[in-house]
Design a protein that fits this description.
Length: about 190
């Protein structure tokens, strides 16, 4: 494996866990690119200790996981991905670590204050379904276009928030948009 990818799950209060199907699709996609993955539950989810903490405590959880991953694989490229609430938490923390790639899927710009987030300097890929029934896609696209560093945006027509029936399309789009040179180091 050429790097380690940490993947953040959707909102804990609405059933989000490391077993979410979009999180699983992100993990499989990164594995296909040669990046090992680590999924974890935020505090209070399943057997994890603690309680939901409005994204602040979950950002602390992510920092701890990223530090652990760096310690386990020193010098390996570090990737970060998140779906929905997990995209928000990933964006809260991304600028603090030397990331090779950031992937955000359906960031909930209508539920959390994204205006105060520091946008990282690493390559950033944003995937959004245009028929998202929870996160209005036009709000996501407008927010993304107003960033100092605009992400590479994947617009997926006729796709809802949970990517029902479109996980393979999501995988294909992600693979198409991530340069193979970023996933596989030069030999």
């Amino acid at each position: 494996m050429h790097g380690i990818g940490v993947i953040c799950h959707p909102h804990p209060l609405y059933g989000g866990t490391l077993h979410n199907k979009v999180v699983d699709a992100l993990s499989r996609t990164l594995n296909d690119l040669g990046v090992g993955t680590l999924r974890f539950n935020f505090r209070g989810v399943e057997a994890s200790e603690g309680d939901y903490a409005q994204g602040i405590g979950e950002a602390d959880d992510l920092r701890a996981v990223l530090r652990w991953a760096q310690g386990q694989r020193p010098g390996h490229p570090l990737w970060l991905a998140g779906f929905s609430f997990g995209a928000y938490v990933a964006l809260r923390v991304a600028h603090e670590f030397p990331l090779t790639q950031l992937i955000t899927v359906a960031p909930p710009v209508n539920f959390f204050d994204f205006s105060a987030l520091t946008i990282p300097q690493c390559p950033w890929l944003l995937a959004q379904g245009e028929a998202d029934e929870i996160v209005p896609s036009e709000q996501v696209f407008a927010w993304a276009q107003h960033q100092d560093r605009v992400p590479d945006i994947i617009r997926m027509p006729d796709v809802g928030h949970f990517f029902h029936g479109n996980l393979n399309r999501l995988r294909e789009q992600l693979i198409e948009h991530i340069p193979l040179s970023r996933a596989m180091p030069a030999t």
